[in-house]
């Protein structure tokens, strides 16, 4: 009876869509574990229990599968961050808190995906990398900062620079937190916003270096 059930399980065929999703999930795990360069079609196929030609049939090779995995992760993270920044009626500090927590929540819930994003991607895959994603987020943050700077009679041209600083802080802290997982993501988000918000609230209009040059 058990042998018959096992035989039926072995002969069950996945649809093309199901097989593609399975390969994406397996590839995601392998890329997160080994990185793009060390991952191989052979290992991906073996873990998925299919032949190598199946992988090539669906994705054209390792590069194609990697591109699909990265694009999905970028879309997920960027979507979460854009959602956190949507409500323009909210106080800017609240928007910062939501964005920081959304970023850390993505890391918490998509560890493999984040590990893939922060690794160096192949040269042929220039679109959809972590750096380009951060550029998109920084542009969104820049819009919010520019509005606030104008309201307080600060030079709006500085918004781009401050946006890069803020996004860089969140991204680097997120990578550190991925390995430590302490303290909680809520505490980390609160501390990041505390540092950035009170730094922004005390901005000088024309800051200068105090040390001699």
From TrEMBL:
Pfam families: TetR_C_46, TetR_N. Residues 40-59 bind DNA. Keywords: DNA-binding, Transcription, Transcription regulation. GO terms for molecular function: DNA-binding transcription factor activity; transcription cis-regulatory region binding. Transmembrane segments: none annotated. InterPro entries: DesT_TetR_C, DNA-bd_HTH_TetR-type_CS, Homeodomain-like_sf, HTH-type_TetR-like_transc_reg, HTH_TetR, Tet_transcr_reg_TetR-rel_C_sf. Residues 17-77 form the HTH tetR-type domain. One of its GO terms (biological process) is negative regulation of DNA-templated transcription. This is TetR family transcriptional regulator. It comes from Brachybacterium ginsengisoli. The lineage of its organism: Bacteria, Bacillati, Actinomycetota, Actinomycetes, Micrococcales.
């Amino acid at each position: 009876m058990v042998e018959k059930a096992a035989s039926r399980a072995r002969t069950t065929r996945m649809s093309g869509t199901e097989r593609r999703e399975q390969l994406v999930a397996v590839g995601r795990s392998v890329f997160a574990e080994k990185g793009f360069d060390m991952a191989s079609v052979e290992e991906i196929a073996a873990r998925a229990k299919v032949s190598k030609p199946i992988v090539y049939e669906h994705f054209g090779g390792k590069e194609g599968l990697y591109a699909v995995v990265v694009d999905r992760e970028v879309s997920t993270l960027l979507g979460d961050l854009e959602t956190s920044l949507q409500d323009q009626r909210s106080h800017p500090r609240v928007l910062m808190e939501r964005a920081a927590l959304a970023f850390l929540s993505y890391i918490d819930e998509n560890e493999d995906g984040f590990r893939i994003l922060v690794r160096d991607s192949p040269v042929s895959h220039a679109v959809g990398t972590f750096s380009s994603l951060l550029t998109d987020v920084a542009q969104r943050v820049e819009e919010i900062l520019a509005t606030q700077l104008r309201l307080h009679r600060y030079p709006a041209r500085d918004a781009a620079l401050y946006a890069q600083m803020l996004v860089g802080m969140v991204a680097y802290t997120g990578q550190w937190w991925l390995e430590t997982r302490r303290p909680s993501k809520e505490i980390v988000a609160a501390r990041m916003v505390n540092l950035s918000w009170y730094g922004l609230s005390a901005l000088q209009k024309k800051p200068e270096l105090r040390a001699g040059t």
